[in-house]
Every structure is written in C-alpha cells, then in structure tokens.
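Write out the 3D structure for:
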Amino acid sequence: MINFTPQQWQMLVAAGAQEPQPLALADLSLPFVYDRTIGVFHCAAGHHRLAMSLLLAFRHGCDSGMEVGEKLGLEFPDDTADRWLEETPGAAFRSSVGRMVQAGKRASLTVIEKRWLGEVEYLFED
C-alpha cells in the first residue's frame, strides 16, 4: 500500500476521502475511489474527481490537482481525474450519481478485481 505523507493525507481528507479499506471488505454501494495500491476509499458525494486528481498530482510530484493540470496541460478536475483513471492500473470508482462502477481500460483490472467490483463500465479503449 502507498504511504501518504500527513500533508497528502490531509489533502485527500479535505477532498472527501475516508480511510482506505481492502477491496474485499469495502461497501461498494457507496461512492468510492479504488486504487489497487491503496485500496478502496469512500468519498463524499461529488468529491471523487477531486480525490482522483490528487492521486494524479501525487504521482507527478505535485501538491494539488490544479498544479498537475497546469503541468500536464489538462483541465482540473475533469481531465486530471480522467488521466489518473486511464493511466492507473487497478483503478476504478463509483460516483454518487452513477449506478455502475467505472474504470479506465478493460485490461487495467485483474479478474479478481472484476469479480469484486461487479459490473464495470470502461471509459477508455484498450
């Protein structure tokens, strides 16, 4: 699992994230962001894109979703969240308005992850 710095974790909490849980134990009926290296963390309604953007920012050595958007020439938070989802193996989410779990590419999830997550909608081509 990834170890966030205290500052990074506070930023995720401010973005509505809760303590990560293993995929097998998480309530997947609630809005969440899943990263296989972190686990499932539930997000406050409407905050999943902020959390996903922060994860992209941390990966690129940035301190915020806006900063990584500027660095990569992406709009924050929609494009930054989409980039994280598309490029992160083992990533998925459920929004507060979505009925299905969504993931980037079909190949990014393992067979076991697909079983746990249930029906998944893929947003990008492999």
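Residues 48-59 form the longest helix (12 residues).
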